[in-house]
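User: Sequence recovery, please. Input:
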């Protein structure tokens, strides 16, 4: 796709990245076939190809407009299109540039500014979100069913043992890992990080933490507050540096959505002379929990579902299968543990959570959630498992079928002593 940048963007490194992405596009439209919003809307402007044309027009004309903003807002950034694209178009970074330009050039209505500002301030901070969640849980019994579903109940956690040393188990390549806490993650379901600590402890893997949960920056990034995102990344690198200097083999988040942004730290600060190298080093060490286990390690831990355990449906978050390009990795682990996985139709489509999307685009998010739940529950599973806290809470708000993280499911069936110990 031939592109001529407007003079205002000629010296903008981000616009140059976008230009390279635009030139890779061959207009084939394969991306539309797997785009959730195009499937729902049937509108070219609500598919990746249409959004690419709109971003091209902004970068060539130098002017953004409200119509373009509407269709960019409606994009989930599920990155299904990147998995489908035969030309390797870097849609992830292209849409980020388009959103940043539109956000910078156009004033939003005050209600939108207020909501987005509140999300950017409250979600990354621990106490405002915990306070709001606590108040919601207190009021939960009196809430209407529709609102009650949106307030996740408190989950009890048990104190799990710390590993005695950093000696890795058989075949394990990460002897010492930095486990990151999340701004909303532990507040909603602290069982998930506890489960990973427990499973790694059983394998003799040392888990270190920074002492305070810090948002990775995904919230600001979802809202196209890119300067805030960059500031957040710099602050995180400074906060994590003492731990990283002592040596870790992997940096891990149990939220696959956080993992996508953490892997992108090197790109986010690529033009920062002070932080670029540090950001790239951290990004290279990011691992999703699924990369820390294989079928053999599950068997070594002695994890085994009871013979009469009811079937389970696996929901693959977009951030795991498309964002981190790790499709088909969790299923073999669950099957090695003896869980019966039901077939799921359209496993590649987004559930509608997508970070702050379910709050800012509730109608589309609700439609996508119902479509996803219809597919997940078609074969009658007793439980749905996933790998991202956003998907977990979003799906749970639309069904009575229990939804949980795959780590908590495995940990619940992990014996106190690994098999053969």
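Assistant: Recovered sequence (421 residues):
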């Amino acid at each position: 796709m031939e592109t001529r940048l407007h003079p205002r963007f000629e010296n903008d490194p981000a616009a140059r990245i976008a230009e390279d992405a635009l030139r890779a596009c061959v207009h084939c439209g394969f991306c539309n076939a797997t785009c959730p919003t195009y499937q729902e809307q049937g509108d070219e402007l609500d598919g990746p190809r249409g959004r690419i044309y709109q971003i091209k027009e902004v970068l060539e004309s130098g002017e953004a407009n409200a119509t373009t903003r509407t269709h960019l807002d409606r994009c989930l950034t599920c990155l299904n299109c990147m998995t489908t694209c035969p030309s390797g178009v870097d849609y992830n970074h292209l849409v980020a540039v388009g959103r940043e330009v539109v956000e910078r050039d156009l004033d939003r209505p005050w209600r939108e500014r207020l909501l987005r500002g509140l999300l950017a301030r409250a979600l990354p901070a621990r106490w405002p979100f915990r306070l709001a969640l606590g108040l919601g849980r207190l009021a939960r019994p009196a809430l209407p069913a529709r609102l009650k579903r949106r307030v996740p109940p408190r989950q009890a956690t048990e104190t799990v043992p710390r590993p005695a040393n950093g000696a890795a188990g058989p075949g394990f390549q990460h002897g010492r890992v930095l486990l990151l806490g999340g701004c909303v993650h532990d507040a909603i379901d602290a069982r998930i990080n506890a489960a990973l600590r427990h499973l790694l402890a059983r394998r003799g893997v040392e888990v270190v933490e920074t002492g305070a949960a810090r948002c990775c920056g995904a919230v600001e990034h979802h809202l196209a507050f890119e300067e805030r995102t960059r500031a957040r990344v710099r602050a995180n690198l400074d906060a994590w540096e003492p731990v990283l200097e002592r040596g870790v083999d992997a940096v891990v988040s149990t939220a696959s959505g956080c993992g996508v942004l953490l892997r992108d730290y090197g790109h986010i600060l690529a033009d920062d002379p002070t932080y670029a190298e540090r950001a790239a080093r951290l990004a290279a060490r990011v691992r999703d929990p699924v990369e820390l286990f294989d079928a053999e390690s599950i068997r070594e831990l002695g994890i085994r579902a009871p013979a009469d355990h009811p079937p389970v449906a696996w929901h693959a978050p977009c951030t795991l299968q498309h964002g981190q390009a790790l499709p088909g990795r969790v299923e073999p682990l669950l099957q090695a543990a003896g869980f019966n996985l039901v077939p799921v139709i359209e496993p590649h489509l987004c559930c509608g959570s997508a970070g702050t999307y379910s709050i800012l685009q509730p109608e589309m998010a609700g439609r996508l959630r119902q479509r996803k739940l219809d597919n997940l529950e078609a074969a009658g599973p007793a439980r749905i498992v996933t790998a991202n806290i956003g998907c977990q809470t979003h799906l749970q708000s639309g069904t009575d079928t229990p939804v949980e993280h795959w780590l908590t499911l495995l940990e619940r069936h992990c014996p106190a002593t690994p098999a053969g110990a």
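Confidence is low (pLDDT under 50) at residues 133-140, 159-172.
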